[in-house]
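hey m, so remember when u said the tokens were messed up on ur end? i reran from scratch. heres the input so u can diff it against urs
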Amino acid sequence: MAASRIVIENCAIATVDANDTEYASGHVVVADNLIESVGAGRAPAGLENVVRRVDGTGHLLTPGLVNTHHHFYQWITRGLATDHNLFDWLVALYPTWARIDEPMARAAAQGSLAMMARGGVTTAMDHHYVYPRGAGDLSGAIIGAASETGVRFTLARGSMDRGQSDGGLPPDFAVESLEGALAATEATVDKYHDASFGAMTQIAVAPCSPFSVSTELMRQGAELARRKGVRLHTHGSETVEEEQFCKELFGMGPTDYFESTGWLGSDVWMAHCVHMNDSDIAAFGRTGTGVAHCPSSNARLAAGIARVPDMLRAGVPVGIGVDGTASNESGELHTELRNALLINRLGAHRESALTARQALRLGTHGGAQVLGRADQIGSVETGKLADLVLWKLDTLAHSSIADPVVALVLGAAAPVTLSLVNGRTVVEDNHLTTVDEDAVARSTRAEARRLARIAAAD
């Protein structure tokens, strides 16, 4: 059967390929779910089976945004504990999070995914690590929501086995046993992970953090991931308190601890990585360990400023993360491109610490690297998957910014005229085509209220 083609032309294009190739006015041809051609000027004449032509005048086309760290369940606890550092924030919210159930997880995932997709995210991930006893099939609910929304998705199947009675922060009934966490994680990999080119769903092994899991869960989790051929994810070096915790409990800093448990390598990425010294950064660069940079959340919780420019110079793969919406209430990734650039320029003589194009690369190709999918997504190149976003830049908000990449990164959030995932339309004229946004809003509001009532009753 002949391939169905979508032709997008007359738009500026930032390919984010290895040479940062850009076209002031160019075209992209999509054949089924793949990019068939990209280049300057109009699309080639005589193309067969063209099912749609899009005039991109006044637009910038980029790879779809890739979110590398999130906690979907937090959508229904937004706006709480707004003046807390990380540990106090966790203590304040864990009693509420420990009451989530399957309908709550599904609604929260729908809200998180809808917000991201509407804002240009084509590949999302969720680090879900709260599995209260009797809560139902939380992983299945989250994966189902991603499938409905139509985005490419990685579920980082998290776990915690260090409850309050063992010196951890979460309530005991919200953590799993070592054996239970490993078994459930392996079952999730076996049921849902797709290793094929173009996969829509993948699974990573993701114990929550050094201060909420045992050393044995870290070590055996790494062994499980490598036995199954999937990636590893966790939180790392987020706060000074975490560094102190690691030194007191393990006799070493976070990076050395991670290395001792098998958690450095090109199949690993970690969220935050704010408090890293030169040696830590060198270790990440040497081993190819990736970083999910979450600038808004880091600022919201006063965690600090990650040394992203230094990481990039050291060869560390770096992507962008929204983080959970209880510490980044906007819940979308464009804000993170802008904030990554701005926050990393704070300080004297840092006016070029990150550029607009570097910020766009972090949110696209960098994210693809971190998720292990740079050969498939993250740049506009022939043969890659058709995960593309067409940003409208001819309105008042961007009317006097000549450089389209600067307009996208430093300007106000640009409307999404068209977003394709795997060649399928997910956003049209700034609205989702796959789910009813108003229905999602009603559902998340209702589940947030139900969770608040249950938590208050306890």
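this time it looks ok to me. The CA atoms of residues 392 and 415 lie 5 Å apart. if urs says something different then somethings off w ur setup not the seq
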